[in-house]
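Give me structure tokens for this 216-residue protein.
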Amino acid sequence: MRKDLRVESRSWEMVSTTLFFAVSCVLVFSFAFVRGGQPVDGAAAGILWIAVAFSGTLALGPTFDRERHHDALRGLLLAPVERSAIFLGKFMGVVLLMTAVELVVAVLVALLFQAPQITQNPWIAVLLMLGNVGFAAVGTLFAAMLVRTRSRSVLLPILLYPITLPALIAGVMGTAALLQAEPNLDLARMWAALLLCFDVVFTTLALWTFEPVMTE
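Here you go.
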């Protein structure tokens, strides 16, 4: 994780690209879902999570690309460490990148869609973080599976979205419950609990399957 962050700090390539994409996504949707100065009901929650999903996919694409050159991936796998440590390092790097992007996107959605609760309600931050964990766990595993394929940029979304769709739906529904005129905290907690279950199950499965995937 430190290595990836150090490399990224020299170019800011992924941060700038992912942030620009997410901001552009929110701006485009704002023209479609804000009419007469008033946003469409329920649009803010959906736009927020769409931006999270798209920007997260963009961040996952080059997760293992740096190690493909000069046979660096083989050297990484031969290092005297547990294979799960490689997965966790990549996973935490993706989570940090998604969190940094969401700090900007959440403020932008709150301003454009007149939803100040997004930046004020701590439960929305909890939902976003839980969503990041589940999305990054599944995405990091699939990025590792596809690292040696030529069409990985096409295959990654095809594999990723069907698996993470329940987490995205839970995030949207939980956020929408908190953005109502009278926030439904109980409903939001239920969706947060479902997100937590998703995170536990898929993070555990990813840790179990990462070593055989990389070995193959």
